[in-house]
Amino acid sequence: MRKFACLAVVIAFFGAGLQAANEPKVVSGREVGANTPSFVVLDVTGPHKGNAICYVCEYRTAPTVLGFFQDRGEETANLIVKLDSLVQKEQNRNLKGVGVIVSGPESKEWLENLAKEKGIKIPLVVFRKGTQDINVKLYKLNLQAKNTFLVARDREISANLTNVSDAGFAQVTDATEKMLSAPET
Known about the structure:
This protein is of the alpha/beta class. Strands 2-1-5-4-3-6-7 form a seven-stranded mixed beta sheet. The protein is built from six helices and seven strands, in the order αββαβαβαβαββα. Helix content is 38%, strand content 18%.
């Protein structure tokens, strides 16, 4: 009886692994090599707090990491903290960053509290019309993705990372370092 129970566990384990391997990868965001078009957001915590602003326009050709987030959970908070730390660490290389909550203005209070509690310096913004905002389509954001990170310089995307976990943020750090180390064109 015990052998059958162990066999059932092994079969279930491998079956789950095969299912996960066969699940399609979530694709979100503009592709590598594409440009970062202008998009207007509502600034919640940045230097233009309370106003509509295009940070892509303001940062122009500076190296930038755009983080788009679907929810306001603990993992999102941790990722925003890590994004802010990365930008602060690389400020001498002119790295810029923005955290965008896709769901919209109902996230303002959460972002304000997060910025205050964690000392976040990068602008935290929201799409003015939430998931119905034209920027969702413009940036090809998949609403099924937990997050999308776009790493860009000279308004050209060099890396697109989707569904980054808290433990996997090194992917964003590595992609940013690669972009910062590449010769400017």
